[in-house]
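call fold(seq) -> tokens
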Amino acid sequence: MRNVLIHGYATINDARVYDTAILNIPSLITALNDVIAEANEADTSRRQDA
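ret:
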């Protein structure tokens, strides 16, 4: 989608962009928060083992 937004701005489907923002970004944020939490836990474990 990024390529279309950057190079094909005349053909952007507003509904698709809106749906992506509303439907997909919240789950992406959740997944990224999970990854960050796991990384923080691993970092904490390594510091305790050292």
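The helical segments are 2-7, 14-49.
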